[in-house]
Amino acid sequence: MALVYRPMMQLSGILVSLLGWVLSCLTTYLPQWKNLNLELNELEIWTMGLWQACVVQEEGGMQCKDFDSFLALPPELRISRILMFFSNGLGFLGLLLSGFGLDCLKIGERQQEQKKRLLLFGGLLFWISGITAIVPVSWVAHSTVQEFWDENIPDIVPRWDFGEALFVGWLAGFCLILGGSLLNCPICSTEVHPSSVHYAVPEQQDQCQHVETETRP
Questions:
Q1: Is 5 a residue whose pLDDT tops 90?
Q2: Integer Cα distance of 106 and 186 in angstroms
Q3: Could you tell me how far CA 35 lies from the centroid of its own chain?
């Protein structure tokens, strides 16, 4: 049962992690981190991402303009760029390491300990990648909420709202953390503790001695 259970958990973990990594990369380049709906002109919706600002018209057209300078961006957007790149890189490295550590892969069948270490290290990378994807998304969401409820800004000034990319980023972080957990759970559950082995050996010896005494004439 354990031989079937462990490969299924590993395969599920790497597939969920792959989904999280794809969503994380998508979040990095989506321009919908913030949405600005102008009440005076409801035909246009302004959006802002990590790389560009766009205006979406009701007719279906979309025009985008890249940011001129990295240093001119708000602090949360600058740090978010770095963290999202870091998350994507760690997720890609985790996919490589955990892929070589899968039990269903025929490469390195005689090196089970090394494959187990690759899976464990890949799962840890997925955890870190998921956290570094959630942090920038949550930071931008927090700053958006603060600006939205800022009493110093006049009511006639349009307010930024949550964009679709924030929800995609939260989902990406959750998938990466879940995938890393699915990879590490079978490893932790199959490990044998030294204390259990220590008590199991004397018990087996006692049973053997008992059998020998019964078989003697």
A1: no
A2: 19
A3: 24
Whole-angstrom distance, CA of residue 46 vs CA of residue 65:
11
**Model confidence, pTM:** 0.78
3-state SS class at 176: helix
**pLDDT tens per residue across span 100-115:** 877 776 665 666 678 7
Give the start-end residues of each E strand in 44-132: 44-48, 52-57, 62-66
Q: Residue 41's pLDDT is what?
A: 61
Cα 76–Cα 125–Cα 195 angle in degrees, nearest 5:
135
Sign of CA dihedral 93, 94, 96, 100: positive
Measured distance CA(210)–CA(148) in Å, rounded: 78
Element (H, E) at 148: helix 112-148
How confident is the model over 195-213, as a mean pLDDT?
A: 42
Structure tokens at 87: 């998350």
Q: What is the mean pLDDT of residues 36-51?
A: 78
Most distant pair of Cα atoms in the chain: their distance: 104
> Strand 44-48 vs strand 52-57: parallel, antiparallel, or unpaired?
antiparallel
Cβ-contact 58, 89 below 8 angstroms: no
Residues in the chain: 217
